[in-house]
Amino acid sequence: LIGGKWFKNTKKLFESCGLKVDFEKRGFFDEKYKALLPSVKSSFILDDVLYIDKGRGFCEQDAAKSLGRSEDKNGEFHFEYEIPKDCSRLIRFDPSTRSGFAIKNLVIEVKYADKTTEIIEPFFYSTNGVEYKDLLVLLENDPYVSFYANRKKKARAVVISGEIVCPLNKEIIDCVYKKKRINIGFYIGKLR
């Protein structure tokens, strides 16, 4: 069920973390491998960045300034970023450079200069992850969520919150890969 490039990259990821893994051909999230990924309660840390597209694409020099962040040992997080005045409306959130986790109950809120706020609904963002129930499952390298701020208003801040789910179980992995095979075009380029 799980194979190809993703299989090889995931095996390399585990080995680079010092984990010895005996992968089975039918997938590796069988019961005996349940604890392969680090537990969110102990070691999964988000190295998040919010990028602003200023006409050069998404680059480090255009990363938004953090106004505050909090993470707790249960995986819940809350980040707030300042949006510069010269912001175009395309914004990209990279929760981590690592993959193999999910975000439960992801909420993206844009605050505007006129003191109004907008919640970005899942239909209006694009991602290289897959939605499964109340999860956004991020299995690809360089996971991201990109979205547009309202072009008629001036965005001043973005607040992103949710809960990290890691490790993932076999049911989630299998369902995500079945969905990806069927809907890969939909998830790569959702239209707003």
Structural shape: globular
**Runs with pLDDT <50, length 5+?**
22-43, 182-192
- Report strand %: 25-35%
CA(first)-CA(last) distance: 32 Å
Q: Please report the number of helical segments.
A: 2
- The helix/strand series, from N terminus to C terminus, equals HEEEEEEEEEEEH
Description:
By secondary structure, the protein is an alpha+beta fold. Helix content is 17%, strand content 33%. The protein contains two helices and eleven strands, in the order αβββββββββββα. The chain has helices spanning 4-16, 170-188; strands at 49-52, 65-71, 76-82, 90-94, 101-112, 117-119, 125-127, 130-132, 135-138, 145-148, 155-165. Strands 2, 3, 5, 6, 8, 9 and 11 form a seven-stranded antiparallel sheet that branches. The chain has a four-stranded antiparallel sheet with strand order 1-4-10-7, with no helix packed on it. The longest helix has 19 residues, at 170-188. The radius of gyration is 17 Å and the shape is globular.
Tags for this model:
192 residues, alpha+beta, seven-stranded antiparallel sheet, four-stranded antiparallel sheet, disordered C terminus
Lay out the secondary structure:
Blueprint: H1 4-16, E1 49-52, E2 65-71, E3 76-82, E4 90-94, E5 101-112, E6 117-119, E7 125-127, E8 130-132, E9 135-138, E10 145-148, E11 155-165, H2 170-188
Antiparallel strand pairs: 1-4, 2-3, 3-11, 4-10, 5-6, 5-9, 5-11, 7-10, 8-9
Short structural summary:
With 192 residues, the protein is an alpha+beta fold. The protein has helices at residues 4-16, 170-188, and strands at 49-52, 65-71, 76-82, 90-94, 101-112, 117-119, 125-127, 130-132, 135-138, 145-148, 155-165.
